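Checklist before submission:
- one chain only
- standard amino acids only
- sequence pasted in full

Submission:
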Amino acid sequence: MPILFPRSSKAKESKMPRSPKKGIRRAICRTDALTGAAKKAGPRQLKKKIIRRVSVLGSGKVRENDPVYQQAVRLGQALAQEGFTVFHGGFGGVMEAVAKGSRKVKGRNIGVTIRGASKKANPLVDAEIKMPCWQSRLFKLVERGDAYVFLDGATGTLTELFVILEMTNRRLLKKPIIILGKKLGSLLNVLKKDPHFDLPRQLVFASSIFQAVRYLKQ
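Returned file contents:
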C-alpha cells in the first residue's frame, strides 16, 4: 500500500502543487533508496569499488524448464562460488533460480520484496528485505548492488534496465551493468544505432556466465 505523508511545514507546502479539490492528499511512495544510492555513488566516486554484492535482474515468469531459468541457476552458482552476495527481487522466475543456484554452493542470496504483496518470497532466500512499493524495491536493488547482471525478461526487466541506464547517464551511478540475456542484448544493439540513444561506458555485453563473472572480478 502507498504511504501517505502529511505536509510538515509551510515552506514545503508552497513548493508542492495544490490539488483543485480540497482535502485530497496525493499518495506517494517513498524512494529513499534512490537518494541513498545517488549519495553513495555520485560523480565524485572516482575510485573503482570492489564488487561484493551483485543485483541480478530478469523475468519473474520463467519456469524450471525454460533456458533462462536454467541460465539463472548457473549464474547464481557461479556468483556464489566466487564469493559474491546475490541480490534479487525475491519472488519467482529468475529470482528463484538465481537463489537456487546460490544455495547449491552455500552462497548467500537476499530477496528484496514488496510489503503486503499477494505473493510471498520464494523459500530459497537467505534473507528478505521488504519495501513498501515496487519503486522503492527497485531502488533498493540499485542501492545494494555493486554491479548489475541482466538476464532476459519482459517489461519489468526493461523498466529496471532503463532506470539504471538513465541514472548512469546522469552520473548518479558508476557501477558495472552486464547484459547476459541474448534477447536483451539484441534489443540494445538495435537501439544503439540511433544517434540519440546513449549507452553508458559502464555497460558490458557478456556472451557467457564465465565472461560475466570474470568481468566482475577484474
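Reviewer check: Strands lie at 53-57, 85-88, 109-114, 127-131, 147-150, 177-179, 203-205.
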